[in-house]
Design brief:
homodimer, 374 residues, alpha+beta, Rossmann fold, D-amino Acid Aminotransferase, Chain A, domain 1, 12 helices, ligase (chains A, B), 5-(Carboxyamino)imidazole ribonucleotide synthase (chains A, B)
Chain lengths: 374, 374
Amino acid sequence: MALRVGVIGGGQLARMMIAPAVELGLELRVLAEGEGMSAGLAATAVGDYRDLETVRAFAADVDVVTFDHEHVPQDVLRQLVADGVVVHPGPDALQYAQDKLVMRARLAELGVPQPDWAAVRTTTELQAFLDEHAGAGVVKTPRGGYDGKGVRVVRAAQDAHDWLEALADGEALLVEELVPFVRELAQQVARRAGGEIVAYPVVETVQRDGVCAEVIAPAPAAAERLTEVAEAIGRTIAEGLGVTGMLAVELFETDDERILVNELAMRPHNSGHWSQDGAVTGQFEQHLRAVADLPLGSTAPRAAWSVMVNILGGPVEGTLDERFGAAMAEHPQAKIHTYGKAPRPGRKVGHVNVADDDLDDAVYVARAVAAHFD
Amino acid sequence: MALRVGVIGGGQLARMMIAPAVELGLELRVLAEGEGMSAGLAATAVGDYRDLETVRAFAADVDVVTFDHEHVPQDVLRQLVADGVVVHPGPDALQYAQDKLVMRARLAELGVPQPDWAAVRTTTELQAFLDEHAGAGVVKTPRGGYDGKGVRVVRAAQDAHDWLEALADGEALLVEELVPFVRELAQQVARRAGGEIVAYPVVETVQRDGVCAEVIAPAPAAAERLTEVAEAIGRTIAEGLGVTGMLAVELFETDDERILVNELAMRPHNSGHWSQDGAVTGQFEQHLRAVADLPLGSTAPRAAWSVMVNILGGPVEGTLDERFGAAMAEHPQAKIHTYGKAPRPGRKVGHVNVADDDLDDAVYVARAVAAHFD
C-alpha cells in the first residue's frame, strides 16, 4: 500500500513532484486550483484551497498533506491538524513564510543575520526609518507578495502612501534597509519531522524584474566561510522555525562580506531546480522524502557546475513544441523541464538545467536553450 | 496540446516512462493487462493486448503507440498501421524481436557476428548440429521466451525431445552453439524514424539464473576496439532492422576476443536502467524522444562508473516500505527505483543505481542496498 502524499496547489512545483513520487513508490494526489493546471495530470481534485471543507475532503484520503505554495490560510491548516491530519510543513512553520513581519521578528529572536527592519503603520514611522537608513528602504506587504509583487523601493515615506492608507486596523507594512548587496544567493535545506537535516551547496541567483532568471550551483567564488555561514543559517532557520520539507533561504551577499536573509520559501523553490539534474537527490525528491518521513538523500553535486535558466514563453513565432524541439536538437546535453502551460510573454513555461565541468560552457548552453523562447 | 504517447503493457518499463514524460511535456497513456500493474498510475485502459478491437480503441486516442513488451501479435500491429496509427517500433522491426529464428536469419544477412545457429525440426537435425559443435548447444523456442524461459542447454538431441515433439507443422526450434564466453555485455542505441541514432557506452551485465542481476557501465576494462565494435553492431542492427525507439543488444564476449549477438530487445531494457541516473539522458527519456520523434539526447555518462543492481522481493521480514526505508537510511547516495509490486522471492520489485568515481564503492553500495531485500 503506497503512502499517499497530497499536494495542495497544482502548479509546476506539484507537477515536478510527480516524477520522483513514481520512482519512490509514493502515490501523489493534487488539489488543483482549476482545470488545466501544470500538475493537472496528477490532479485528483479541483477546488479552492481557502475553503475548509474542500481541503478537508482532499486531506481525508491522503496520509500526509504538503504544498505547492504557502497560501493555505492558517485557520484551514490548524483545523486539519486538529482533525489529526499530518501536515508538512505545519501551520506553526508556515506562518513565518506567510507573514514577513512575523518572519522578521522570529529570525531576530534566532539571531539570524538580516537587514535592519521595522513594522510601520504611518508615513511618520516610515520616514523615521528612512531617515535612519540613508533615506531609502524597501517596503513590503507582509502577506501575499511573490516574484517582485508587494515589494517597492522607496526614497520617501510618500512613495508608500497608498499602501499605508489601505492598511486595516492592526496591520502594518514591513520596511527593510536597502541592502548594498553584490549578489543574491540561496541556501536550500531539507528537514524531516524527527530533526534530520541535509543542506545543499549555496547557489547564486540572478533576478530579472524581481523574478529568478538564472541560478549557478555552487555559487562561484564562494569562500569556504561563506558556504559554511549560509549552511548554518539554513539549518538554524529550519530548526528554529520547525520547517519540515524543503526550505529555501534567499540571501543577500553584501559588499562588506555579510550574508543577510532576504526571503524564505517552505517548499521546493526556483533557486533549487538545478538539483533535479545537478545533485544526487533533486529538491522535489528530497521534499517528498522529508514530508513522507523517509530518510533524506545525498545532496552531493553530480558535476562541478550546474546552471539553471528559466524559460519564459515569449512572443516568438511557432508553437512551444516547435521551440522545445529546436532547442533539444541544438543542445542534446540540456535537460529541459516543461510545465505544460500556454506561453505568454514573461510567463515561466519551463526551465533548463545544464551540468558541466566547465561553468562557461554550462552558462552558454543553458542561455542558448532559453533564448529559443524569448 | 501535448503529444499523446500510448504504451501497450503496464509493467515497470511503462511505469518508468512516466517520470520523463512529465518533464518532456508528453501525455502518457497506458494499456495495462490488468488492475494493479506497475504502471497502473498512468493506465487509461485495461485490456488484452492480443485483442485487435481493444488495441484499436486504445490507439484511436493517442498520437503514437509504443510498448512495454514485444508480445503484441503481428496481425494486430499490422492492422494498426493499416489504420494509419503511428507505431514505434513498427511491426517490420518487431518481428525480429518476436521470433529468434527470423532474427538470426536477418542478422546473418546483415553480416552481424553471432553464434553458429540452425533451425531444427527433428532430433536428427539437432543431433547433427550438436555433433558439429563439440556435442553441446543451446536450444531456444523462437517465440515467447524471456528471462531464461524457453532456453535449454543440451548435450544430446534427446534433451530437447519434448520441445521437438510439441512443434506444430512449419515450426522449428532454434539451436545455437554453446559460446565459450568470458562475460556478457549489452549495447544500447536509440533511433528515430528519420534515421538519427545515438549509442550508449557498452555495459557489462551479470546474469543469475538466466535473469539480469547487475550491470556495470561502462563495461570495465573494455578495450577501445571492443567499445567501437559493440557500438557498430548496435547501429547496424538498429538501421538494418529499422528499429525506432530504444534497442538493447545483448552480447557475448568470447575468450578469443570476439563479440557475438545473443538477444535483442526493442524497448528500454534492464541492462539500460543504469542510464536513468548515470547518463545525461536516461533510456526511458530517450525512448520517448525517439518514438515521439523529438531530437535525441546526449548519452554521455554523468560519472566515471554506474552500477545497477536489481532488487528482488525475497522472504525477508518486514514490509517492502520498511526495507526501502532502511536501505535509504544507510545509503543516501543510492537511487532506488520502485515498481509498485507486491514482493515475492525472485520477483523484480525495483532496482538501485549508484554512480561514483570509484567502481568498487559503487558496486559495494548498490549490492548493500539490494541485500536489504534478499
